[in-house]
Amino acid sequence: MVMEIRTGPEQLNAFEIAQRQFDEAVEHMTLKAGVVKMLRLPKRELTVNFPVRMDDGSVKMFTGYRVHHSTVRGPTKGGIRYHPAVTLDEVRALAMWMTWKCAVVNIPFGGAKGGVVVDPKGLSMRELENLTRRYATEISILMSPDGDIPAPDVGTNPQVMAWIMDTYSMHKGHSVPAVVTGKPIEIGGSQGRIEATGRGVIFCIEAAMKRLEMHAVYPNGLEGARVAVQGFGNVGSVTAYLAQDAGARVVAISDVRGGIYNPRGLNVRDVIRHREETGSVVNYPGAEGITNGELLTLDCDVLVPAALENQITAENAQYVRAKIIAEGANGPLTPTADAVFADRKILVIPDILCNAGGVTVSYFEWVQGLQYFFWQEAQINEQLRAIMNRSFEEVWQTAQQHKVNMRIGAYIRAVQRVHDATVIRGIYP
């Protein structure tokens, strides 16, 4: 049986949510007030309005953003999102979350994010390339391999990164592979990068199951566990098939058009084939059609929200039946939903930890690009597992020490590192 709870939008926008999460963590810490004020706001913001020539010869204007939240711990790192609902506040929030994400796994980056207000599915490949190259040129005043390194996000992919790298390199007069990550292997991308975010989600789920002592029911880790995945882009699809590879029963999957459910389990790679042929997971043979809202309330062991922000709110959180919520997306839960799950003793693996596998392997790719020396995929995955497992245990111990949930535990770890780096460097001049 599936249940759908229709909810109205909560009033907070993404940036207000990010600031509220930060403020809640700061209440448990002893920090310098001036540094706290600095960290609540982005360091710099760029808004660009630019023309793109369309296939019919017309010119259309687009708006894009690039936001740097913090540069204290290193160059800024963060994806570029192509979506019609992109706003400056959303990009601010995502940049802030990137700062904490990099800090919680202790890699030497600050946080950034970019976005263009566009539906990429409505553009031809030529139009998409034209838009990408013009946007890359507009933000090149901030972008550099030692200053700001973009990556893929919602609506972008390795091909988009290739166009950005080529555009930047043409302006420099030589190839600069380290200016972006998430590139195709053929031009300096890293082994393991495409699967990195989803693989990191799996590592976190396995660590959470051990900490919750779920081995009494599932002695072999994910084997037999029921998993539902909302969102079937890169993160959701990889998480789903890696979960199935580990023996899990993936009972539900959804994308923007709707979802599918089979309590006996879905063949994830066959669902991927169906999506490639039809454009959606909807109408997959042998599965019941469900909505995205219904998926969130299914009876399962692990729920992976891997779509967009604010999917689980105070209104539908009380109906979620999963034991573990692993945030594959950035900001899929509102603060009020967090409070509901804390009261219900449902473990939430927060986004800044759970989906940090992508930026971790992006760091590996950046290092390889700077050195022109490349690692084997087994090395990549081994190092990723070590970093994710270590980071999960650090966050778990911090949450236990402060008697807070995992999100606040992750924030405490991350904010402390950025605060300390700021204090050590000092305030210029």
Topology:
Elements: H1 14-26, H2 33-39, E1 44-53, E2 59-68, E3 76-83, H3 88-104, E4 110-117, H4 125-139, E5 148-152, H5 158-172, H6 193-211, E6 226-230, H7 234-245, E7 249-255, E8 258-261, H8 268-278, E9 288-290, H9 292-296, E10 302-305, H10 314-317, E11 324-326, H11 335-344, E12 347-349, H12 351-354, H13 357-371, H14 377-402, H15 406-425
Parallel strand pairs: 3-4, 3-5, 6-7, 6-10, 10-11, 11-12
Antiparallel strand pairs: 1-2, 2-4, 7-8, 8-9
Give a short overview.
This protein is of the alpha/beta class and 429 residues long. It has two domains: 1-41 and 193-355 and 403-429, Rossmann fold, CATH 3.40.50.720; 42-176, 3-Layer(aba) Sandwich (Rossmann fold), CATH 3.40.50.10860.
* CATH fold category name of the largest domain: Rossmann fold
Q: Structurally, how many domains make up the residues? A: 2
Describe the oligomeric state of these chains in a short phrase.
Answer: single chain
Distance between the termini: 63 Å
Taking the sheet with the most strands, its summary is:
7 strands, mixed
CATH superfamily membership of the largest domain: NAD(P)-binding Rossmann-like Domain
Given helix and strand content, the structural type is alpha/beta
What's the architecture of the largest domain in CATH terms? 3-Layer(aba) Sandwich
| Strand residue content | 15-25%
**Low-pLDDT residue spans:** 3-9
Helix content: 40-55%
Rg, please? Answer: 21 Å
Supply the CATH class of the largest domain: Alpha Beta
Order of helices and strands: HHEEEHEHEHHEHEEHEHEHEHEHHHH
Number of helices: 15
The average pLDDT score comes to: 95
Number of separate strands: 12
How does the overall form come out from the CA principal axes?
Answer: globular
